[in-house]
Structures are given as C-alpha cells and as structure tokens.
Amino acid sequence: MANEVKPLVKTLRYRVKDGVSGRHLNAAARAVNMVWNHCNGAQRHALKHNTKWPTTGQLQRLTAGAGRLIGIPAQTVQRVCEEYIDRRRGSRKAKLRWRGKRSLGWVPFKNQTVRVVGSIVHFNGRRSDCGCTEKSRDASSPGRSRRMPAGAGTATS
Q1: Which pLDDT score is estimated for 12?
Q2: 6 pLDDT more than 70
Q3: Residue 132 in contact with residue 14, Cβ under 8 Å?
Q4: Which of helix, strand or coil describes residue 114?
Q5: Which of 89, 65, 87, 94 lies closest to 78, judged by CA?
Q6: How far apart are CA 32 and CA 133, in angstroms?
C-alpha cells in the first residue's frame, strides 16, 4: 500500500468571455451546488442516525439519474460526489458547509463531457468562448498562465 501510485490529475481553468455561455455555465454551477447539498444531506442523515458515513460509491448511487433532471451530465454528478468525499476527508470534519446559489463557481468535468478546440470549450452540447489562444494557455510562456483568472470550470484528465 505504501507504493500506491495516485493518478495524475490535470486542472485547466478558463474564463468565459461571452454572456450567453456564462449564463448556461452559471446554471450548471447551481446544479452542482444542488448535488453538493444532497451529498451533505446524506452525510448529516448518517450523523443523525449514527450510521456509517457514506462512501463515494454510495453517494454516486444516491444521485444516479439526477443529472438528467437538473441538466448536467452524469459524469459531472459523479465528479461532484468524489470531490465532496475528498473535501470531507481533507477538512477532517463530520459535515461541510451548505452551498448557496453563488457559493461554488465551478463545474467539474471529465474527459467524456468536455472538449477544448483552440479557444472554444464544448460542454454539455454548448460552445463557450474562453477568449484565449494556445500561446496564452501555454505554461512555457512566462506569466501568462499565472495571470489568467479562475474561470467557470475545471477539467480533469
């Protein structure tokens, strides 16, 4: 177990420049908040009834089918459950904060749900212009990637 290798996670942050895509991504962020709050409710239910804390798999089974109802892909719902468990373990708290309308400004992606072509990001059947070029996202260009503000989404691979 000591030689266990963790998978490499690559995080990309984009700032969306156009207003129409921003509204759709804000709606997706609010849906992510609903999933987060549902996971938090399951955690509080376990605490109240003195049962085992829910695992990632249990939370994913509890939220199965929710993506279709709230308008985000199922992979995003699964990723939110994974992130909730990681944050709960990292904070070493029994329960985390509830998330309001504007609390989380991120939408977690998996490789299946996001595609980046140049400065265009395709997510959930919608195109979003992040207004950046390959050079500005390149880590080798000094200072450019550090000054890009945190955006609406996170991509993992």
Answers
A1: 67
A2: yes
A3: yes
A4: strand
A5: 65
A6: 28
